[in-house]
Amino acid sequence: MNALAIRRQWRLAIVAVLAVLLVLAPALLPTYPLSVLTEILIFTLFAMSLNILLGYAGLPSLGHSAFFGTGGYAVGLLAKYYGTPAALALVIAVVAGILVAIVTGPFVLRTHGAYFLILTLSLTQVLFGIVWLWRKVTGGDDGLPGIPSPRIPFLVGRISDTANFYYLTLIVVGIAVAAIAWIVRSPFGLALVGIRENERYLEGLGYPTWTLKYVAYILAGGFAALAGGLFAYFKGFVGPGQISWLLAGEGMVMVILGGAGTFWGPAIGALLVLLLRYEVSAFTQRWVMILGIVFILNVLLLPQGIVRLPQRIREIRARLRRETTLAPPLAEATAAAPDRSVERVIERS
Fold first, then answer.
1. Hey, what domains does the chain have and what are their CATH numbers?
2. Terminus of the chain with fewer CB atoms < 10 Å: N or C?
3. What angle do the packed helices 31-51 and 3-28 form, to 10 degrees?
4. Is the Cα dihedral 153, 159, 160, 164 positive or negative?
5. 145 three-class SS
6. 60 neighbors 196 (Cβ within 8 angstroms)
7. CA-to-CA distance for 200 and 329, rounded, in angstroms?
8. Which of 88, 85, 105 is nearest to 220 (CA)?
9. 60: phi > 0 → left, psi -120 to 50 → alpha, else beta; which?
């Protein structure tokens, strides 16, 4: 069995253990850590949806919170004013995020690089302004409080409400993550990687690169809206802050910290950022500064993300092994070689 197969088996074993721990989490964790874990799951989905654009298609977006907030407001309005069941409300939230992506995609995807970044940021600010000013519907800066939290019916009365919503989130996020895994490992996902590496070359091969990016943009918007809908249920509140570009920037930090273009990197980034927010902020209010230091060190030492740390360690060990192997022969050759410096001096004189 080669090393690649062994590493694959190890990864499957780690994923299986992680899945078991997630299922048993309500029995192992008190209420507060379980609530934090629920939020980590939601932002894992948000970061993975952004990774479709940033990591796989190479499209840095500061407007991803627009989809997140759209899903949150869709769920908030439906749940608070119409009593819509959670399953239907989340589906409508996904549709709302997809519609926003369909409308805005033809405008922002005409640009590349920094221009794409600025246009997506402008999209976020436009929606932020609409939400802020449309007080009769969105509540303005007060937001929409009092969103009822959904529950899995057959678990009501058997476990706490926190654990009930945790399992609901785990099921929804699990299905969404499985869908993202299928997408990024499909020929479509490989084409997105080709666009990231060399879009002109792919165009020369006959691929409709703009259409592929448009589809990726729509899919990312739908998954982000689903995360926003879950977050609205989780907090029982949705406000303009969920459309702010700051949230989009936080998502980019999660993706880059964990490893853009990798599958599990965004999940690791979401875990690290939220743990820093809740654990470090318990000791100091300057947790953002600490996050900034961690981000700078990560970019300098692990530019490909934390998820590639084992690979980085293997590369360093292999390089040290090669240097150790080559050092003695080089030293012996240097010692055996005659010193020609005196001869060169005599020849010059």
1. 22-320 (1.10.3470)
2. C
3. 140
4. negative
5. strand
6. no
7. 47
8. 105
9. beta
Contact 26, 166 (CB under 8 A): yes
More reliable by pLDDT, 308 or 1 = 308
238 close to 71: Cβ distance less than 8 angstroms: no
Q: Which two tokens stand for residue 107?
A: 């405008």
pLDDT exceeds 80 at position 193: yes
Amino acid (one-letter) located at 14: I
Residue 231: partners with Cβ closer than 8 Å, 6 or more residues away: 39, 42, 46, 68, 72, 238, 242
User: Do residues 59 and 116 make contact, with C-beta atoms less than 8 angstroms apart?
Assistant: yes
CA dist., res. 253 & res. 316, Å (int): 26
Check residue 169 and report its DSSP letter: H
Give me the torsion for CA of 276, 184, 103, 125, rounded to 10°. Answer: 20
Query: Strand 144-145 relative to strand 237-238: parallel, antiparallel, unpaired?
Result: antiparallel
- Return the exposure string of 274-291: e unless at least 16 CB atoms fall within 10 Å of the residue's CB, then b: bebbbebeeeeeebeeeb
| Type of residue numbered 182 | W
More confident position, 343 or 245 = 245
63 Cβ contact partners less than 8 Å away, ≥ 6 residues apart: 104, 108, 119, 120, 121, 122, 123, 124, 245, 248
- Does 81 have pLDDT greater than 80? yes
The secondary structure of residue 62, as a DSSP letter, is S
- For helices 187-204 and 209-235, the axis angle rounded to 10 degrees is 140
DSSP notation for 4-30: HHHHHHHHHHHHHHHHHHHHHHHHHS-
* Number of C-beta neighbours around residue 191 at 10 A: 21
Q: What percent of the chain has pLDDT over 70?
A: 92
- In the numeric block, which tokens belong to residue 256? 């880059």
